């Protein structure tokens, strides 16, 4: 696992800029560094050694030095691709998965190479013969890749903060996206909160040539091959085989591998499969308050399968003191309240191992979120109540004060692309109008993401919702926080359930094998749970999803932390972007149990993020509260 950066050479950029950029992401690769510069480009690389420790230095070069590669990630099928390439006449100098990318690019070309890869990756190849830069990101966005394009300057990197080391990077807030961030808690598109900075989207590649960048898609998850004849028993049997195979592939390493472990079925299943292959140390996080702690569950499970477990606890002080640092490592203002837990969990695991497994992805691919269940209710409502009547009822209900069923009637009149709760996950349009100081910024966020629903418009609502989550929530929230919080600690996290082979099978499963009903009660992830139940104790396989619980809602009301939030809500940053009286109102409502903790956390973390990345524009210098991890100091 590594970090890389680069830029097209321009007048005025000193040669040492590439090293300055790479040092901004040293935490991604503390073991080694490497650089390449010629008249066209500058490439920088930081290495975290996982496979073939003695070799694999980057940039890595092709024959006659015509290609230069920088690569972040793991190619899990590199050994079989290596054999295939050797049979086609390619010669290998190392046993690194990175060399497969160079040799595959030479032998097959970029598109065929990408079609063969199984793994998590972001890489850039400078092709000196063609005078072009080619970059690609993995199928689901496990590993990050950004580029900056202002029409004159072009640069790229594993993290946005790398650009801060280049004097030609003009750091500007993309204020037009503030409403989108307040709605989703992330930006569900290639855009970012920095002007002219873009994500390479999951399953995409870019080519920079002759002063212009183009992007294209090489992989797109779809539900074009759903088999309605499949049964839960059949799908569970197939999932067993796929998870077994994927965990084996994700265990390949020349260093010790550990595993994150919560009380849930996903991480327990992954951990159990890994333990069949070799002894493996697990790591779990909790709080002193047992109501929010899963430590008793995870410790007991590890003991049952005769594996070690290290419990890690954190306090309110740990949590709130860390938040400015979290904003620095996150690059963008992500307000997922479980991110600090993941940081402390990663920090604890990194004391023993440089690689851990984790259970992300099962809920999105196999139908695990309870929010998918409301789709069944709305589909029945749409079937029995004509559209004109639903529209009338929704219109009338909106005019009345709050009453039981009001929200259902309003939402029942709306199309799914506007109704799905992820579209207004934090603030809806009405709430945003109250808090945003500039009303012109309150754009229609449902319209912003509607095109994603349009891509699966012919499928049932559960499938559409899963597709939306796979293309937004998974890469831009779940996987982004996993990457940033682990790599801040120089820890590689591998996700066997976010895997091309596993996911492609999940796309064939009908809704009835993803979510079913037993004794009148819904069962989410039905086939996945059945597969897990054949391997882990039934009490674990059937356990209700908790997410990553924390006492943050209580901490917000604690005077010790409440005061920090009030100070931020009255800062010059808050006054620039928000109506402060509305922020006070939200805090007051929360104290009486009438407002969402997520609203407070989203505003608070945005203020912290802005103070970290734009300290020159504020009196609140939150960047001074950032505590860099050891490998960045």
Keyphrases for this structure?
single chain, 633 residues, alpha+beta, six-stranded antiparallel sheet, 28 helices, 42% helix, 15% strand, globular, amino-acid biosynthesis, EC 6.3.5.4, Ntn_hydrolases_N
Biggest sheet record = 6 strands, antiparallel
Low-confidence stretches: none
State the separation between the terminal residues, measured CA to CA. Answer: 19 Å
Question: How much helix is in the residues?
Answer: 40-55%
- The number of E-state strands comes to 19
Notes on the protein architecture:
- This protein has 633 residues and is α+β, with helices and mostly antiparallel strands.
- Helix content is 42%, strand content 15%.
- It contains 28 helices and 19 strands.
- The strands form four sheets. It has a six-stranded antiparallel sheet, covered by helices on one side. The chain has a six-stranded antiparallel sheet with strand order 4-5-6-7-11-12.
- Strand 4 and strand 5 form a beta hairpin.
- The radius of gyration is 24 Å and the shape is globular.
- The two termini are 19 Å apart.
Show the helix and strand layout.
Elements: E1 2-8, H1 17-24, E2 32-37, E3 41-47, E4 60-61, E5 67-75, H2 78-87, H3 97-108, H4 110-116, E6 119-127, E7 132-137, E8 146-149, E9 154-157, H5 178-184, E10 197-199, E11 204-209, E12 212-217, H6 232-250, E13 257-260, H7 265-275, E14 282-286, H8 295-304, E15 309-313, H9 316-330, H10 339-350, E16 355-357, H11 362-366, H12 374-384, H13 387-399, H14 406-412, H15 416-419, H16 429-435, H17 445-454, H18 461-471, H19 473-487, E17 492-494, H20 500-506, H21 511-514, E18 516-518, E19 521-523, H22 526-533, H23 538-541, H24 552-557, H25 559-569, H26 572-577, H27 580-591, H28 597-613
Parallel strand pairs: 13-14, 13-16, 14-15, 16-17
Antiparallel strand pairs: 1-3, 1-9, 2-3, 4-5, 5-6, 6-7, 7-11, 8-9, 8-10, 11-12, 18-19
Helix pairs in contact: 2-3, 3-4, 6-20, 6-22, 9-10, 9-28, 10-19, 13-14, 18-19, 27-28
């Amino acid at each position: 696992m590594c970090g890389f950066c680069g830029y097209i050479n321009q007048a005025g950029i000193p040669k040492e800029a590439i090293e300055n950029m790479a040092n901004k992401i040293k935490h991604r690769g503390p073991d080694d560094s490497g650089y390449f510069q010629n008249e066209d480009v500058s490439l920088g690389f930081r290495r975290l050694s996982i496979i073939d420790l003695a070799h694999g230095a980057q940039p890595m070069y092709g024959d006659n030095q015509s290609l230069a590669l920088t690569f972040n990630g793991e190619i899990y099928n590199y050994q079989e691709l290596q054999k295939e390439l050797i049979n086609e006449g390619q010669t290998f100098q190392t046993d690194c998965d990175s060399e497969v990318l160079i040799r595959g690019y030479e032998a097959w070309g970029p598109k065929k190479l990408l079609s063969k890869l199984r793994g998590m990756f972001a890489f850039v190849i400078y092709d000196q013969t063609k005078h072009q830069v080619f970059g690609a990101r993995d199928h689901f966005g496990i590993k990050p890749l950004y580029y900056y394009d202002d029409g004159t300057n072009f640069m790229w990197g594993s993290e946005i903060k790398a650009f801060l080391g280049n004097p030609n990077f003009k750091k500007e807030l993309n204020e037009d996206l503030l409403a989108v961030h307040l709605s989703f808690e992330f930006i569900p598109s290639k855009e970012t909160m920095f002007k002219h900075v873009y994500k390479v989207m999951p399953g995409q590649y870019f080519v920079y040539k002759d002063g212009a960048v183009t992007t294209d898609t090489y992989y797109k998850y779809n539900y074009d091959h759903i088999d309605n004849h499949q049964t839960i028993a059949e799908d569970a049997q197939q999932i067993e085989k796929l998870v077994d195979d994927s965990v084996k592939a994700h265990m390949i390493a020349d260093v010790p591998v550990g595993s994150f472990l919560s009380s849930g079925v996903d991480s327990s299943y992954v951990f159990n499969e890994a333990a069949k292959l070799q002894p493996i140390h697990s790591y779990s996080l909790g709080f002193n308050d047992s109501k929010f702690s899963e430590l008793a569950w995870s410790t007991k499970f590890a003991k049952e399968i005769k594996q070690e477990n290290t419990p890690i606890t954190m306090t309110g002080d740990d949590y709130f003191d860390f938040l400015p640092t979290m904003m620095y490592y996150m690059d963008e203002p992500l307000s997922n309240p479980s991110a600090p837990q993941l940081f402390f969990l990663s920090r604890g695991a990194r004391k023993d191992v440089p690689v851990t497994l984790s259970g992300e992805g099962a809920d999105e691919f196999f139908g695990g979120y309870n929010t998918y269940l409301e789709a069944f209710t709305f589909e029945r409502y749409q079937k029995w109540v004509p559209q004109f009547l639903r529209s009338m009822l929704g219109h009338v209900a909106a005019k009345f004060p709050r009453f039981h069923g009001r929200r259902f009637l309003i939402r029942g009149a709306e199309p799914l692309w506007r109704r799905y709760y992820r579209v207004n996950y934090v603030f809806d349009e009405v709430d945003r109008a109250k808090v945003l100081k500039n009303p012109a910024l309150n754009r229609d966020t449902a319209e912003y993401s509607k095109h994603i629903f349009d891509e699966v418009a012919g499928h049932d609502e559960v499938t559409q919702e899963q597709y939306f989550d796979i293309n937004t929530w998974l890469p831009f929230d779940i996987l982004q926080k996993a990457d940033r919080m682990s790599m801040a600690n120089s820890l590689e996290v591998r996700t066997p359930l976010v895997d091309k082979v596993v996911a492609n099978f999940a796309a064939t499963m009908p809704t009835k094998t993803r979510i079913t009903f037993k004794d009148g009660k819904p069962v989410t992830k039905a086939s996945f749970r059945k597969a897990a139940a054949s391997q882990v104790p039934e009490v674990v396989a059937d356990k209700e999803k908790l997410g990553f619980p924390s006492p943050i809602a209580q901490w917000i009301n604690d005077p010790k932390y409440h005061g920090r939030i009030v100070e931020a809500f009255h800062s010059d940053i808050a006054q620039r972007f928000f109506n402060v009286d509305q922020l006070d109102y939200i805090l007051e409502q929360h104290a009486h149990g009438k407002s969402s903790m997520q609203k407070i956390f989203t505003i608070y973390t945005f203020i912290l993020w802005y103070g970290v990345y734009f300290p020159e524009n504020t009196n609140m210098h939150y960047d001074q509260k950032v505590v860099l991890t050891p490998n960045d100091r």
